[in-house]
Amino acid sequence: MTIQGVRNLRRASQVLFFLIFFWLILKTTFEVDFNPSEASEIRLPYPVSIALEFDPLVGLMTLLASGTLYKGLLWSLVILIPTIFLGRFFCGWICPLGSLNHWLSGFRSERTSRRGKKLLESNRYKKYQRIKYYVLFFCLGAALFGSLQAGLLDPLPLLARSIGTAVLPTLHSAALAVASFASGTGIGPIAAVGAGFYDLLSLTLLPFRQAHFHGILLISLVFVTILALNRVFTRLWCRGICPLGAMLGVFSRFAIFGLHKDDKACNECNRCLLACQGADNPNVGSQWRQSECHLCLNCQAACPEGALKFKFFPSKVSTQTNPAGTSKVDASRRKLVASFIGGIALVPLFRAGDAHEVKRSPYVVRPPGSLPEDDFLGRCIRCGQCMRVCPNNALHPTLLESGLEGLWTPFLIAKIGYCEPTCTLCGQVCPTGAISELAFNQKVGDEETPPNRIGTAFFDRGRCLPWAMATPCIVCEEWCPTSPKAIYLREEIAFDRQGNEVSVKRPHVDPALCTGCGACEYACPVYDRKAIYITSVGESRSETNQILLERQRT
Amino acid sequence: MERREFIKKTGPAVALAAVSGATGLVFHNRDTARSSNLVAKTADFQVPPDPSLPILTAATNPDPVAALRAALDGIGGIERFVHPGEAVVVKPNVGWDRTPAQGANTNPLLVSEMVRLCLAAGADRVTVTDVSCNDPRRSFLRSGIKEAGETAGARVMLPSPEDFVEVDLGGVVLTRWPVLRHFVEADRLINMPIVKQHSLTRCTVGMKNLYGILGGRRNRLHQEIDQSIVDLAAFVRPTLTVVDATRVMLRGGPQGGSLDDLSIEDTVMCATDQVAADARAVELLGLSGRQVGHIALAARSGLGSLDYRNSGYREMV
Lengths: 554, 317
Prior knowledge:
Chain A is mainly alpha-helical and 554 residues long. In chain A, β6 and β7 (501-509) form a beta hairpin. Chain A is 42% helix and 8% strand.
């Protein structure tokens, strides 16, 4: 196969893996067309979190932070081991965010704003590319002490989170707006085109109903910034910041595959530099950097003299005109150690603050099956899969609700959606086991097993209709899904404004039965601030965050 | 400055000012504007009364399909209610994410049989739909009603936010309310409730089941629940009410969950009078129609007969 053929193969691979990744995110949703045949448990038909399980950085960080390699994370070796021999092929051939950056940086910047010498200079190796190793070591330090922060910047969780919670819901909202604008014009053909546009999108990309997520502005801002950085330098994110790229760069230390430069054939036309993605100095006369190269093969394809060739066991001999390539990472050892210590120091800093051990936030109701908070923070990579799959739109990314340490981890906002008692989808899609996979009976409970509890419901009697306004309601009791119901009613005498006796049924919560699912809060008609609300106390995952003595046994 | 030059230089500014001013004047409106797509329509799906036939039949058989057929034959057969070319909407209770055995949703066997009967009678299309409380995808799936409806040849429509139209229901407390489009677009409506205990209304049978045509924040209706049910029953007059009393939920309604809360009655009722159907069905919960606020109020409002035994009731054998 010619080098052009191999390069086309790389392009096809980028498109293919991007589409697979995107398709898996689209399928991380509860679809209607399931086989219903009396299934008490509903399972997704595809292993939608598989893309995240192939991520070596997720594997390494969760291994350090939690001490185990959960479920499918062993798959990450499929990426890691070839990298050890070949180098960062993942970045050039597979990574969907890398491909997005690749396409965007080729889209306008190179063609219009940077040409010729300018582009050539921008593609030479630069010192800022060391930053990613410091990011990596910082995250390693934090992970070693139990706080998993790599997910904020790891490209796969980052892209899954951005597409799942920001891009697709925004698209949905936009499509609805277009359709409603078109029908609002009152002009038949325009309305039909608008409706057709919406139908097309809803058939292909949009879920059953519009999802709304809490605080996605910051997620969008980060994502848009990363994409926009391609205007500054080609793949600035991949070259300078990406911790996964840094990890794969480190693991390329002993690679046996690399760029062989023939300095006699080279006439220094520098075309290789014009096409370089990783800024790894492919040109003769500069030192080629294995740890920066994405193996995109553009340089070899661009070379008119055939002076560049990727091969196994490339020459490691320097000549007068051409230094041999290096697989050493160009990063200062002192700064790496400093970053690592910085990461380590971050964890006690977080926990010396008003962390959950001393100031439990009532609003951080974690998904059912979540691990205790410390373990949870050691595993959650903030990929947003649980939020996307939740059929009730109940799970949302936190902003500061669980502290800066827990940025974008999932929590339940019952006002928007409650936890469906028979649903275990969030645990099914969690790639790292921050939310453990519950069996059906572990979720709803049976004779031997207590149900999984995520919190407890409380009444705000100043707002509740039967309590404060002598008005009948009982919607919370109607919606309470436990059997027998955790919310019970007592017929009580209230007085109306004239002092007449009115008999109303007043609701009460039995905390021993309440699972904290939040259906009551969701259904409560006092819309803006609900008269019944759940908080995290009583959650199964915590030994200490409990009210009742007996409840721990039930 | 020359006149020509002055006009040239001020022209664009003047034009923009004129356009701005004109836009303001054209859209100026002192009244608060409210865009309205209100549909004024009653939903009377009834067939003409036939004095020779009962208004309510009940049949008991361990095979629910046989019970349905017997009860339906007694009240005139499907041909009386569904005519060739008509669009029929079947409204079971698909409120909750529960399995058929838990008896919180209408028995899927009855739904599929009803769909088949309507199609056999020449219905142009049969739609099965309901506005679920829990997530509609889960509710339709786990209740078995999606599969039952589709295998029998119906369109099973899960409500989505775009499917609602604003309707003036013209009631005492129920006035403007979003109604699922499929219900106002049909020719015939077959209401298929299930009998359950309910802690505010004491029971939910036929008339309460009509809540499932409404969207919006219907949990506010509980404040005037009897009147709002009666308003709804006055607005929606189903062609036929088929009561699923195969399993009756005595406690923990309307969601239930425990099989201990159910009583097996193996009974199916068919009624042209929804008040009579409700009055008969609540006896299975140990109540009489008179004790149930909304049933008594519906009878007083002239929507039907509480005293069904003297107005044409037959138990099929």
